[in-house]
Amino acid sequence: MKKFLGIFLCFMFVISGCGSNDDTEDKTTDKEEKEEEREELTSLAQFQETYPDDQPVAIVETDKGKMVIVLFPEYAPKAVENFSTHAKNGYYDGLKFHRVMKDFMVQTGDPLGNGTGGESIWGGTFGTEISYELFHFKGALAMARGQSEDSQGSQFYIVQGSGKQLNYQYDKIIEDKYAEVGGVSSLDGQYTVFGQTIEGLDVLDALASVEVKESATGEMSTPVEDIHIIKITMTTYGEYKAQ
Which of 32, 93, 141, 225 is the most exposed place for a label (fewest CB within 10 A)? Predict the structure, then answer.
């Protein structure tokens, strides 16, 4: 099996269409260069000892406590802008965690509270931003969407799963981190990861541990008692560390 990053690059090459032989050779060379570059990954953006002072940070206050999440606009600029703007405008304040699945994730961001609502700051929806620098480790923040890759609106989820099983072959540093902290690797390459929880994993576990009942679709994921976002405050890493 090829490495996960290589699989995606190869897939993108296949669907890009056929051109001349020279074009094909150029694309193959580009793919190989990108693959080699990716294989040199020696650190993980989601697990740095420190971040630049101006790195955006979201402080998510919930009924179960506070989570602090660092955001990565350098890898998912639209998702970060969408989330940050909604947060600053109070869009998320008071919304329910409408979908909770222990050992998987908690989902919120829908003003209708049932998983069918919400829109982006631009109106409607926008497309995925898949970065192969960010992964679905436990605590990862990612955009929820429908079947279409262009269906991201306002809803997001935080990975709570701590599974060690890998669905792809990764670079060793990624495999080691999944072995250490867990996550849901099966989601990698499909959904936009744009943040990582750096404080409050115990709060995330508490959110994911509430009693649930069947949703309208028959999934056991609707909290019996509502749990909410109280407020999301946007700040920077420098301001957060200075508190």
Answer: 225
